[in-house]
Specification:
Its cofactor is Mg(2+). The protein contains three helices and six strands. It is of the alpha+beta class and 111 residues long. The chain has a single domain, classed as 2-Layer Sandwich (Alpha-Beta Plaits). The strands form two sheets. A four-stranded antiparallel sheet has the order 2-3-1-4.
């Protein structure tokens, strides 16, 4: 059971995006995309970087497919999947002061 939550099996999805906001339609597409990834469980890491914790690669694949299904018509979107071990090596700073990365969420699975 412990191997199911290995730091090499648990995944983080990072979605990076740079979307146009020049027209009213562009702003609407931006807001819609942002709301949809938030409703899928992503959290804002930085202004155009959102992250989501997944318990497995298979679960991460489901959420990456959802993001691909809601891509806006214009702009640049990147999706990256990293293991929990890789994500734990991330160093985050607020000014010159280091801060801890977001905690790994533990979810109970019922069969």
């Amino acid at each position: 059971m412990n191997s199911r939550y290995s730091a090499y099996r648990v995944m983080w999805i990072l979605v990076f995006f740079d979307l146009p906001t020049e027209t009213k339609r562009d702003r609407k597409n931006y807001a819609k995309f942002r709301k949809q990834i938030l409703s899928d469980g992503f959290a804002m890491f930085q202004f155009s970087i959102y992250i989501r914790h997944c318990n497995s690669k298979e679960n991460a694949d489901v959420h990456m497919k959802r993001v691909k299904g809601i891509l806006p018509p214009k702009g640049h979107v990147g999706i990256m999947c990293v293991t929990d071990k890789q994500f734990s090596m991330l160093e985050i700073f607020r000014g010159k002061v280091g801060i801890d990365p977001p905690p790994t969420l533990q979810q109970l699975e019922l069969f």
